[in-house]
Write a structure and sequence with these properties.
heterodimer, A: 113 residues, mainly beta, seven-stranded mixed β-sheet, 11 strands, B: 112 residues, five-stranded antiparallel β-sheet, 54% strand
Chain lengths: 113, 112
C-alpha cells in the first residue's frame, strides 16, 4: 500500500490550460503539503493544510488553488498554466505532534509547452 | 533567519570514500534536523535526523554531526557506495509546527 500517492505522475499541457493534481495519504496524518521542485532541485513549500484548514500559503499566485475535502486528501488545481509552472510537484504529509517527519509522494512532473 | 544553507552543491566521491555535506542555520528555535535522500524520479525520503540535545547520531554508514554553538550540522557517509548516488537535502524544523525549511540540496555521485 502506497503511503502518499499522487496522480497523475506526468502532465504535459499547453499554456493557458487548467490542470489538477490529486493526492491521498493513508498514514492517518493530520497535515498535508504541496511542495514545488524546480529544475535546480530546489524544494519550496507552497501550501500546508492541517485538518482540512489552510495553514501555509507561501506567496503562491492565485492561479494555484489547493482543496482539502478531508484529512486524507489534498488536491492542487492550477488555472491558466504558464511556462514557469513547469516543475515537479510533491505532495507530502506529516503528524504535527510527532517529529514532523515528512512523507513524500513520488511527484507529478508538469510540463507546460 | 528562515534559511538553511547547504554545501557543496555537488560532490563526486570514489567508492569507499567519505562523503561530507554541510548545513548551517540561523533560527535557534529549530529543534529537529533531518536529512532527506532523493533518488531520480522519486520523492525525498527521511534518511536520518537529530535533535540539538546530542552532538552526533549514527545509523549504519550515515552519521550526523551537530554543533549547536556554531549552528551547523553535517552528514557523513562512510564507505560511500554507487547506490548512495542521489540528491541529499538537509532541513530544519520546529516540533509541533508546520515550519520545515529545506537546504538547497547536494547532488552526490559515487564512482564505482
Amino acid at each position: 500500500d502506497t503511503a502518499v500517492s499522487q496522480t497523475p505522475k506526468y502532465l504535459v499541457t499547453q499554456m493557458g490550460n487548467d490542470k489538477s493534481i490529486k493526492c491521498e495519504q493513508n498514514l492517518g496524518h493530520d497535515t498535508m503539503y504541496w511542495y514545488k521542485q524546480d529544475s535546480k532541485k530546489f524544494l519550496k513549500i507552497m501550501f500546508s493544510y492541517n485538518n482540512k484548514e489552510l495553514i501555509i500559503n507561501e506567496t503562491v499566485p492565485n492561479r494555484f488553488s489547493p482543496k482539502s475535502p478531508d484529512k486524507a486528501h489534498l488536491n492542487l488545481h492550477i488555472n491558466s498554466l504558464e511556462l514557469g509552472d513547469s516543475a515537479v510537484y510533491f505532495c507530502a504529509s506529516s503528524l504535527l505532534r510527532d517529529t514532523g517527519e515528512l512523507f513524500f509522494g513520488e511527484g507529478s512532473r508538469l510540463t507546460v509547452l | 533567519q528562515q534559511q538553511v544553507k547547504q554545501s557543496p552543491q555537488s560532490l563526486i566521491v570514489q567508492k569507499g570514500g567519505i562523503s561530507i555535506i554541510n548545513c548551517a542555520y540561523e533560527n535557534t528555535a529549530f529543534d529537529y534536523f533531518p536529512w532527506y535522500q532523493q533518488f531520480p524520479g522519486k520523492g525525498p525520503a527521511l534518511l536520518i535526523a537529530i535533535r540539538p540535545d546530542v552532538s552526533e547520531k549514527k545509523e549504519g554508514r550515515f552519521t550526523i554531526s551537530f554543533n549547536k554553538s556554531a549552528k551547523q550540522f553535517s552528514l557523513h557517509i562512510m564507505d560511500s557506495q554507487p547506490g548512495d548516488s542521489a540528491t541529499y537535502f538537509c532541513a530544519a524544523s520546529i516540533t509541533g509546527t508546520y515550519k520545515y525549511i529545506f537546504g538547497t540540496g547536494t547532488r552526490l555521485k559515487v564512482l564505482a
